[in-house]
Design goal:
Oligomer: heterodimer
Strand content of chain A: under 5%
Helix content of chain A: 55-70%
Distance between the termini of chain B: 77 Å
Structural class of chain B: mainly alpha
Largest sheet of chain B: none
Number of strands of chain A: 0
Helix content of chain B: over 70%
Radius of gyration of chain B: 24 Å
Chain lengths: 126, 165
């Protein structure tokens, strides 16, 4: 009889330990996730993460990106000639064209009253 | 003494005539009425900005690491160091860092703006919008400065090309 009670107690204790282990794991996971999210947010990575909902690139955009890929790197060593510098300028021009492809990035007009549909202040209000 | 009093009175009068908020009643009503559509426009701006930041940031990184830095190393190796190019490289690197940090500040403010209750607090919303505009203006200036530095690089290298055999 006492053996039966001891067995039941052991089982009960085992179940409780298992529950504590589970809860502990959840708490640890919550803490580490919160830390990761804080780092992700504070480092500013969140603002350039285009895998966020609503920030995914369009299909057309992905195709354009693939077309623009160019892995040129100007060699750090070797002789320098006019031809080499000419090639350098040509390759640099590809990057410049890609940058200029963005017409007025961060232009102020995008956030103007007019663009946002906010009317001009009427005389009697101002 | 009389002159002093006149100055004080003028100052007080000018302060009283200044608008308390930078927003008029009709604007307040419009923000409140079209809150959701304004918010959607801002979300679209946010998405396009993320796209511009990623693409431009990548290009700036490439220009710095694959063009500006290697050329200076190679010039030194060839006993042709260019003070102008080194200065341009350093300025480009510094401005790129400023661009990255300014973008974080701008987006933090924009995200706060998108999360604001423009329906019930249009004046506060507009106040924040003005702040976001200032931050965006800084971004615009950063991009223009980086573009100018790239043009400088092209001009200096073009000049160098005519000197090298």
């Amino acid at each position: 009889m006492t053996e039966e009670v001891a067995e039941k107690k052991k089982l009960h204790r085992g179940g409780r330990n298992l529950l504590l282990l589970g809860l502990g794991s959840v708490v640890i996971a919550l803490i580490t996730t919160s830390i990761s999210l804080a780092v992700y947010h504070n480092s500013g990575d969140i603002y350039i993460d285009r895998s966020r909902p609503g920030f995914l690139p369009d299909e057309k955009e992905v195709e354009e990106e693939e077309e623009l890929e160019d892995d040129y790197s100007f060699p750090k060593s070797g002789v320098l000639s006019a031809d080499i510098l000419e090639e350098y300028l040509e390759k640099l021009d590809i990057e410049v064209k890609a940058i200029d492809g963005y017409e007025n990035p961060f232009s102020s007009s995008v956030l103007s009253d007019e663009k946002l549909g906010i009317p001009a202040a009427t005389e009697e209000d101002s | 003494m009389r002159r002093f009093l006149v100055v004080i009175a003028t100052l007080a009068l000018s302060l009283m005539t200044l608008p308390v908020g930078a927003i008029a009643k009709n604007q307040e009503e419009a923000i409140s009425d079209h809150c959701e559509s304004i918010r959607n426009s801002l979300k679209m701006v946010q998405k396009n900005d993320a796209k511009a930041r990623v693409h431009l940031g990548g290009r700036y990184e490439t220009i710095l690491n694959e063009f500006l830095m290697p050329l200076n190393v190679r010039l030194v190796e060839n006993n042709l160091p260019s003070e102008e190019l080194v200065k341009n490289q350093n300025e480009f690197a510094d401005t790129k860092t400023i661009f990255v940090n300014d973008y974080i500040g701008y987006q933090q403010n924009l995200e706060e703006l998108v999360g604001m209750d423009c329906k019930n607090e249009p004046a506060k919303f507009y106040e924040k919008l003005v702040k976001v505009r200032q931050k965006r203006k800084t971004m615009e200036q950063d991009v223009l400065k980086l573009r100018t530095l790239i043009t400088n690089q092209i001009n200096i290298v073009t000049g160098l090309r005519s000197k090298v055999k």
